[in-house]
Amino acid sequence: MPRLRSLVSAVCLVALAAPALAGPRETLMNAAFSASSVPEAKQEVASALSAATAELAQDPNDSEAQLQQALAIGYRAKLTRNSGDAKRARQLFNAFLAAHPRDPEAQLALAGWNLDAIADLGPLLAKMVIGASKRDGLAALDRAVALGQNRALFAAYGALIRARLDPNDPVALRLAQQAVAAPTPTALDRMMQQRAASLLQSLRNGDKAGAATLAKRMLPFGTLNA
Prior knowledge:
By secondary structure, the chain is mainly alpha-helical. Helix content is 71%, strand content 0%.
C-alpha cells in the first residue's frame, strides 16, 4: 500500500475554536498539533472518533459531530495508511458539503484531503489510489478562503499548502500577505497567522526551497515523529 500517512493532514485545520469542555474537536487539534508520535496521535484520533460517534448516536443531525467524525476517519486513514478510510472520509466530506455548501471548515477539509494527498503521493498515484484531484482541491481551497475571509486560518492554510506544492506559486505569496492582515478570533487563527508570517519572510527572501520545507513542517502533523 502506498504511503497515505500525510494524505489528509490538512483537514485538522478545520478544528477551529476549541469548546469550553474537551470534545472531539479539541482532541483532534491535540492530535494534529501536539502529538509527538504516531501511536500517540492514533490514540487521540480514536478517542475523538468514539466521542463523535457517540454524539451522533444521540443526535444524527448534529452537524458538529458529523464533521468531526469525518475528520477523525480522515486522520485515521492518514495514520494507518488505510485507503478505505480515506475514501470514506471523502464521502462524508462531500455529504456534509451537500447539506452545508457554504461552510468554510468543510471546504477546507475537502481541500486538504485532496491537496495533501497530491503533495505526499504525487498527482498520478494520489488519483489512482484514492481519487484525489489537485483541481478539486484548489477549487475547494478557493471556496474556503472566500467564505472564511474573517479568519486568518483559511488564507494561512492556503498559503502553506500552495507553497508546499509549489513555492513558486504567486498565490501562495498573496495568501500569506492576506493571512498576516486577517482577523484572529481564535488561538488557532493566531498560530496559523504566525506561521504564515514566517512563510512570507522566506518567500520574500527568495528562499523557495526553504519555503517549501518550512510549509511542510508548519502544516498539521508536519513535525510528527513515528
